[in-house]
Design a protein that fits this description.
By secondary structure, the chain is mostly helical. Helices cover 66% and strands 5% of the residues. The protein is elongated, with a radius of gyration of 46 Å. It starts with 9 loop residues before the first helix and ends with a strand.
């Protein structure tokens, strides 16, 4: 191949070149001379004295224009033009790629000589030969067919409709027509414009029309169950069909159109039927309905509303069924709610693919049930959960340690929905205190596991006092060891096994009711020795307050058929010791000797009378030992009734919660006002609610009272300019 510019006869050279070019576009037996074509292009572009690149380009354009016109004429001769169009396009596209390579030198010259915009004297826009070929195909083939009733697109639409009807068609024909509409605009700035305007628009219109008719027919003739199954199947088919017959940018549009016609138009009927599906547990239908409606904007909202209502109604009925026994044995209450939660959580996971909005709906419904004050009469859910936790963590629990852990985890599921977490904390801490004091825990590991769960749920502050209780128990064990060593050093003997628990005031929820209880003489010396040891040796300067109502003792009984051992409270012990020297003791004498109130005496005696160790003569208001006392057990625990909370203590606990809330709200108000300095009434209330919601849901009237109280205490004041605003007083 010669690269030296030379003088040539352009017409003669181009005639030979066009002969080969025609053979390239219209394959025949004629043999192509490729190198001669490359040489001819080079010679015509570099000929002496002036290159003929523009003339060559216009000549090629004229040839392609004539060729495309011939193709359009041939296509219009056929009835079924789609397969012929595909054949012609494939040949034209292949030839144009070869021609573009042959004219590579021409392409480079034109790029250097011209910008993207050309003068008005240019008949054809200067571009690569392949881009030129594609633009001429659009102008003389596609637009020509469009002007004749748009026969190509019409026939493609017919083929697609046949495919939707289940008939066999040439899928390659449809796909290649689609691809031609994309390819011919390959060199345009908006390369999908022709495809969108001609092919996609027609495809969407045919989709809308087809499925509008089909869905209306089937929704009128079939049940909703069958209809949604068919809708799901048709959507899947259309998705697969779209991947074959459309550009990827059309997938979402086509599926949305199909969904609108098959689901959106009939969504109210599907939504109305969802309630029936829930009641009948038609899981498969619910899954299909949810999958269909989730495609529609806000389509699942009525479903979620129905689901929430259903969960509330069924949950409320379950609670009402077990409520009569719940206050005494809350385990059934907890079990039914845990099972209720598990059922619908599993439904969301399996049927609705773990949709977070669906799970949130279940959460809202459970939260509504658990915090329904009209449903939980007299005793709130927080109290019941605390009592259930106490039952699980007591030694008397029949569950194994593994079962306890599993049940505690289930309990925590419900705890997370409780608004009044401070109520749970109050009752749980009190029951924990009693378990630690009376040695009633199933295990320290189980107790600490529960506290860890609470800390993860509510934070360190929520469990700080609970952990301090465990710390005090450990310190008390060490203190008892030191006390016994001190007695040995002093050569003192107590004549009884004496141990104490020193509990830090403020961390233990123990009510120190005023009492003038008189210790039995047998124990006075032990208390004196320990007080001297603690205040002078162990912790100088600290004050001890004795909580006699929490003390317990082990007593051995003699003079009966067996040697029994009783576990009693200190109050019970003081009564029994009176019977050591007297055969009968009146209630007045007990009150005189022990300084206990009559109500406390009655409560302490009840457990002793119940086991028939003591006989009570109502007429003489005196007690005596039952000489015929007998029992199958050697060790008898009679403190259970005394250890249980009285109704007065429960009420006091509830009142304590209300008092604590007022203090918490006041502290929150001061904290907010100190940081903001000035705030409107509504904003202050919202801030306080936001700070308090992790522990409880404060009522607005209580917040208002706390605001008034702080105004009286001169922590805040009303603004002089606006009485609806508050100002922090520094």
């Amino acid at each position: 191949m010669s690269l030296r510019p030379k003088a040539i006869d352009f017409k003669a050279t181009y005639v030979d070149f066009e002969t080969n070019l025609r053979a390239l576009y219209s394959p025949s037996d004629q043999r192509l001379t490729g190198m001669n074509m490359f040489q001819a292009v080079y010679d015509m572009c570099t000929c002496y004295p002036k290159g003929q690149a523009d003339r060559l380009f216009d000549s090629i354009a004229a040839f392609l224009t004539g060729y495309c016109t011939q193709v359009a004429n041939r296509l219009l001769e056929f009835e079924e033009i789609a397969p012929i169009y595909v054949s012609e396009w494939n040949s034209y596209q292949t030839a144009s790629r070869y021609a573009n390579s042959i004219c590579d030198y021409l392409n480079r010259i034109l790029i250097k000589m011209y910008s993207s915009k050309v003068g008005s004297d240019a008949k054809y826009r200067r571009q690569s030969i392949e881009a030129l070929a594609y633009s001429l195909w659009v102008e003389h083939v596609i637009n020509r067919l469009k002007s004749r009733s748009n026969r190509l697109i019409f026939q493609v639409s017919q083929l697609i409709e046949k495919n939707r009807d289940g008939d066999s068609i040439s899928a390659d024909t449809v796909r290649q027509v689609m691809e031609s509409f994309v390819e011919v605009y390959r060199y345009k700035d908006h390369h999908l414009q022709l495809y969108v305007e001609e092919y996609e628009r027609s495809y969407l219109e045919s989709t809308r029309s087809y499925y509008e008719t089909e869905s209306s027919t089937f929704v009128a003739s079939e049940s909703i169950s069958n209809f949604i199954q068919r809708a799901s199947r048709r959507l899947a088919e259309e998705q697969e069909r779209t991947t074959r017959f459309c550009h990827p940018t059309s997938f979402e549009k086509v599926v949305r159109e199909c969904t609108n016609q098959y689901v959106g138009v009939h969504q109210k009927r599907i939504q109305a039927e969802f309630v029936t599906m829930l009641v009948r547990d038609l899981h498969e239908d619910m899954t299909v309905a949810y999958d269909l409606l989730i495609r529609i904007p806000d389509g699942t909202l009525p479903l979620l509303a129905s689901l929430e209502t259903h969960i509330k109604e069924t949950g409320t009925k379950l609670v009402e069924t077990v409520w009569s026994a719940a206050t005494k044995n809350p385990s059934e209450y907890v079990d039914v709610l845990v099972a209720h939660h598990a059922k619908f959580t599993e439904m969301c996971t399996k049927l609705f693919k773990g949709d977070l909005i669906c799970i949130s709906t279940v959460d809202n419904a459970l939260r509504s049930i658990i915090n329904n004050r009209s449903l939980h009469k007299n005793t709130g859910s927080a109290e019941l959960l605390a009592k259930h936790a106490d039952n699980l963590l007591r030694k008397k629990s029949a569950s194994s340690e593994g079962d306890v852990e599993e049940k505690l985890s289930a309990l925590m599921i419900l705890f997370m929905y409780v608004d009044d977490k401070d109520v749970f904390q109050k009752f749980y801490s009190r029951s924990l205190a009693k378990r630690l004091i009376y040695g009633g825990s199933v295990s320290d590991e189980a107790e600490l596991s529960m506290i860890t769960k609470l800390k993860m749920a509510c934070g360190v502050d929520y469990t700080s006092k609970l952990l301090r209780m465990f710390h005090d128990i450990g310190v008390s064990d060490d203190l008892n060891t030191r006390f016994r060593g001190h007695l040995d050093q002093q050569h003192k003997s107590l004549n009884l096994d004496f141990s104490i628990m020193v509990l830090t005031a403020g961390f233990w929820p123990l009510m120190n009711a005023p009492s003038e209880f008189q210790l039995p003489a047998e124990m006075e010396q032990s208390v004196i020795y320990f007080t001297q040891f603690y205040t002078s040796v162990a912790f100088n300067g600290r004050k001890l307050t004795w909580l006699h109502h929490l003390a317990k003792a082990d007593v051995k009984l003699i003079g009966f058929d067996k040697r029994y051992e009783l576990n009693v409270s200190l109050y019970q012990l003081s009564i029994l010791l009176l019977l050591n020297s007297l055969p009968r003791v009146s209630l007045q004498e007990i009150e005189k000797q022990t300084k206990l109130s009559q109500s406390e005496i009655q409560r302490s005696l009840k457990a002793l009378v119940d086991i028939k160790l003591v006989e009570f003569n109502e007429g003489a208001s005196e007690i005596s030992v039952n000489a015929k006392f007998t029992s199958k057990r050697i060790k008898i625990k009679v403190t259970a009734g005394v250890q249980a909370d009285t109704p007065q203590e429960v009420d006091a606990n509830r009142k304590s919660v209300e008092d604590d809330r007022k203090i918490y709200i006041q502290a929150a108000i001061v904290r907010v006002m100190k940081s903001r300095r000035e705030l409107s009434h509504n904003h202050l209330i919202q801030e306080v609610i936001s700070l308090s919601k992790s522990r409880f849901s404060p009522s607005i009237p209580v917040i208002k009272k706390c605001i008034e109280h702080l105004i009286e205490k001169q922590y805040i004041e009303r603004s002089n300019q606006n009485r609806d605003r508050y100002v922090y007083i520094s």
